[in-house]
Amino acid sequence: MNDPDSVGVLVSGPAEAELSVVLFRGGWADVDCFDGLDDAGALPASDIASAREFAVRLDGWVAHVFGQLS
Fold it and tell me: Does this model's pTM top 0.90?
């Protein structure tokens, strides 16, 4: 089958911090994170209407977990 319903991204960083994102064709994503210290859980991710919007949200999720990148 060449028509996937989802795509996943796993980003890992210092202190065992991780961001796991699975984007679904229907416009939502499962987003789980752990900052390596004490913040873990799911982040809101619905009503994603375009690739551009997904990129903006992904940047925000990365900043939430790993801090602002320079």
Answer: no
